[in-house]
Amino acid sequence: MDVRLFVVLFLWYFSYDALCTPPLPVVMWHGMGDCCCNPLSLGRIKTIIENNAPGIYVNSLKIGSSIVEDIENGFFLNANKQVEEVCKQVANDPELKDGYNALGFSQGGQFLRAVAQRCPSPPMLNLVTFGGQHQGIYGLPHCGYPNKWCNYIRELLTYGAYWSWVQNDLVQAEYWHDPLNEEEYRNRSVFLADVNNERVKNKTYIKNLLKLKNFVMVKFNNDTIVEPVETEWFGFYRPGQSTEVITLQDSELYVEDRLGLRQMDKLGKLRFLAVDGNHLQFSEDWFVENIVDKYLK
Ligand SMILES: *[C@@H]1O[C@H](CO)[C@@H](O)[C@H](O)[C@H]1NC(C)=O
Ligand SMILES: *[C@@H]1O[C@H](CO)[C@@H](O)[C@H](O)[C@H]1NC(C)=O
Ligand SMILES: *[C@@H]1O[C@H](CO)[C@@H](O)[C@H](O)[C@H]1NC(C)=O
Predict the structure, then answer these.
(1) Which residues belong to the signal peptide in this entry (predicted)?
(2) Is the separation of the CB atoms in 153 and 243 below 8 Å?
(3) Atom 6 (ligand 2): residue with closest C-alpha?
(4) In terms of pTM, does the model score above 0.90?
């Protein structure tokens, strides 16, 4: 063979590999009242990602066998069961076998964090949560859209978030965090108190969370749906009252490093992004520049 041709082929082979290896796949988990494939929400996000990262594979999770079920499950299927179901979906998707990046929207944010903590294989590399409620909520002033269940859910949360049937059947109660009754929250919260290592310090959770390359938390500065908004950056009310909000760095969770977040912070793995706008409102330009280009390519 002509040596020049050989060199050309050789170079082509390596540059081909570099140029044509598609970016790591993306898994997305929608928020409350939404579903996998709405063309105005996650469907649109999927298209933006595909347009900006050619060849990328995006799996927008559907919990249940239909769109209607997917929406209902966001309210009424125990978060632990949802996480278990997603662990199976992720493990059974051959496209994800070498790892993936994860985007969680609203409650999908804390649920995907639970996936990272409970199901380390295949590996999640970057986790980005948009308006996630990592320390829970203590208030749900609006559902953000007209919804027949919204008022009913708000009443249940106000009066009986820790009643066992409410805990087991109402997703939003499973991340209800009453700062006036921290002990009751720790004892009874079936989901959040567990994934935040409030009851026992589960070393597996710490080890798995530390495997993330980046844990990016996006907070919406003008959020009128989530209370308190600081929960989107893992902050919350100072225990015992419900007006003063403290940051993650001032919380016991961090100081005692119960979940490995302090270690992650020291390693530069925690990213705190803020965007002006109400819950889950951001522009395409912002999303491409701050998320797609930085974490998905
Ligand atoms: C810790 O988490 C792992 C993964 O979910 C689980 O298998 C284990 O039972 C948990 N341990 C405790 C003490 O809760
Ligand atoms: C929480 O659980 C502990 C241990 O089981 C118990 O002693 C305590 O009374 C419980 N507190 C509340 C408020 O449920
Ligand atoms: C949104 O919040 C930011 C930061 O608190 C503030 O500077 C901005 O004026 C707010 N925008 C609106 C429209 O309220």
Answers:
(1) 1-20
(2) no
(3) 187
(4) yes
